[in-house]
Amino acid sequence: LFDMNCAIIISLLQEETTNHSTTAADGSGSSELLILCQKLLFSANSMSTATAIASSSYQNRAICGFILASRLLRCKLIPNEERGGILSWVMKVISPSSSAATPLEALDPDIACWGLTFLQFASSVMPSNNIMSKVPPVGNCVPACFPEMTCFVDTQSVCGQSDVFHQVNKMLATAAIVQMEDSLRVPLLHATTQNKESVATSPTFLAFAEVSTHDHLRKKKSPATTSMVVCAPYFLYGKLPQKEGLQTSMADQNKPFLKSINLVADYVYDLVDRYLELGTSKSGSWNPRGWLLAKIQLPCCLTGSAMEILGMKKHYGLEVDADLKEHTPNDDIFQRRWKLLFADETKSKATLVQDLIEFVNCIIISICVSCAVLKHAYHHFEREEAQLSTMGINGANNVPSSSTPNKSDEATRVHRRKRKQLEALRKLLQFQVSKIHTMQRICKNVLFALDGLYAEVCKLNTARTNKRMGKYMKKEGVSNVVAIDAALPNQNGVSLDQSESKASYERKKIPLSEVKSIVMAIEMFLSSQINTIDNS
Fold first, then answer.
1. What is the C-alpha separation between 202 and 241, in angstroms, rounded?
2. Model pTM?
3. Lowest model confidence (mean pLDDT) among 17-31, 232-246, 331-345, 479-493
4. Side-chain half-sphere exposure of 328, counting CA atoms within 13 A
5. What totals of helices (H) and strands (E) does the chain contain, helices first?
6. For residue range 310-351, what is the model confidence (pLDDT) as tens digits?
7. Which residues pair with 298 in a beta bridge?
8. CA atoms 296, 261, 55, 116: torsion sign
9. Where are the alpha helices (DSSP H) in 178-260?
10. Quick check: 203 and 300 in contact, CB under 8 A?
């Protein structure tokens, strides 16, 4: 609706300019629109970070600013200098903050997604009416041609690809989602020092580290001194492990990545996707091998028994050959087993829920990066396969001619080498798909556990309310804030030890509404287009 209003206002401005027979917007009309655009884009600067996170109103205003800016940017009646100012405003809005506590807080994910879309729109060339008129109709749909397109709208790119790549590269560098193994900002838990003291200082482990069976070119290439790592823990939580804040209330922690992890996932996917798109277009010899062999950094926040129940190795290990079974909500076996995740009586249920959320958030971010890499690696594979097929070497043409036997033999060797490299790349693509499917299954298992816990707590609270109030109880549903520890019994059916102090008890409360929001966010992510993979 706002986009339609912007189009109407700008069209009225164009009509007014046409009636006055001028070549550019002459005064107050365009100036007021530019002022409005600037105020909408920078509306977040008028409030504190805490207020901005608690309210989404500033996000809505900034998004309206992006919509108006996209209309003004392509309007020929706006002078080029002012259009350049609009582009600089957008660049400033989506520039990461250097004072943020975590990379995630450096830039609002929702605003960043709109910013990436705006940059793609500004650097692309719009199809002209001549091109659109040659597009054949699809079914009953005939491509629309707008005569005013070339009159009032600038169809050429407003900014260069290099400018956009510089901005996207700065955003990805601040997010630090991809790091090198020898310079990780969050240390690893090594197998030789797996004890309680090392967990506090080395809170992460590397998944999918065994790549020797999948990398068929490893023996022919020199061993790499380091490899790429997808670092979701640092992106979400910064250098300090999440365990530092487990004693605080859920309401006191950063909510955007807890209740809106699906929005963060969209931003991460778009960011890596745009970076690879621009980077591969600049470089004519991109090799996806390093990206496909990237390891996944995950937090050591779950107990060994919880790792096994979710389908992983007890001592912090995850590989594609793990015996993972994809459970469904109607699977009776998993319906009985999910409660085992909360059987550890040394931890509160709220702490265990936070551990699961921390782990699944890192899994979701890792899936997004892996899917973006898979997309561009597969496009690279298609291009290489097409190039190989056009080399003109097949079974019939492999017979060397008597005049040029050496050239024919050399071409045959090149063709054979290219074919082996292509087959090795195919194996790496299959390895990437297996990694994504493995993480998706773990994500689904955590989803079913949290959803089952939510349903169980609601059922128990309703039963206790019915018992307390009888048939005259008010039908108000469950409380907005309920102590999960008090509502969910342990495996023996006995409530938690009541000797626990009330102050400590209050700190471990989790709003059921937040648990439900998290469940819905994970469901939205799993059903999104990001997780749609063509296995063929």
1. 9
2. 0.81
3. 479-493
4. 2
5. 21, 6
6. 878 877 788 875 445 555 555 566 666 778 888 777 778 888
7. 205
8. positive
9. 196-201, 232-237, 256-259
10. yes
